[in-house]
Write a structure and sequence with these properties.
Layout: H1 5-30, H2 32-60, H3 64-92, H4 98-118
Helix pairs in contact: 1-2, 1-4, 2-3, 2-4
Length: 119
């Protein structure tokens, strides 16, 4: 698990880079709507992850019990926020490329694992 502010920033940076790369690849082969869809998929991953990291970092200063509670609440919030963001994109972006959206999300999600491997 990543336990420092620098580690959280590194993990989020890797996720942002992967989201950008995924958007670029989809843009080259699928056009503007596919690129934007992939970027939105990445954002659906990065935004809740950033919120989760912020909550965990704040809780780490209050002790183990607070950290455990914040971890559980943060993870549930991250899942709910991801679902809400997916629904919002599908509802309001009418030219969404569904495959690019999902691939962008999944690829960006792997950025956390990649950050764990390089730290």
């Amino acid at each position: 698990m990543i336990s420092s502010a620098a580690g959280y920033r590194r993990a989020l940076g890797v996720q942002v880079a992967i989201a950008g790369g995924t958007g670029l690849v989809w843009g080259l082969f699928g056009g503007w709507d596919a690129a934007l869809s992939a970027l939105l998929g990445g954002a659906i991953c990065v935004i809740p992850s950033a919120f989760f990291a912020w909550r965990l970092h704040a809780a780490s200063r209050r002790g183990a019990a607070a950290f455990g509670a914040a971890f559980l609440a943060g993870e549930l919030t991250k899942l709910a926020l991801s679902a809400v963001l997916f629904a919002a994109v599908i509802r309001w972006y009418h030219d969404v490329h569904h495959a690019a959206l999902v691939v962008g999300f999944i690829a960006t999600l792997q950025g956390y694992l990649l950050a764990l491997l390089v730290t």
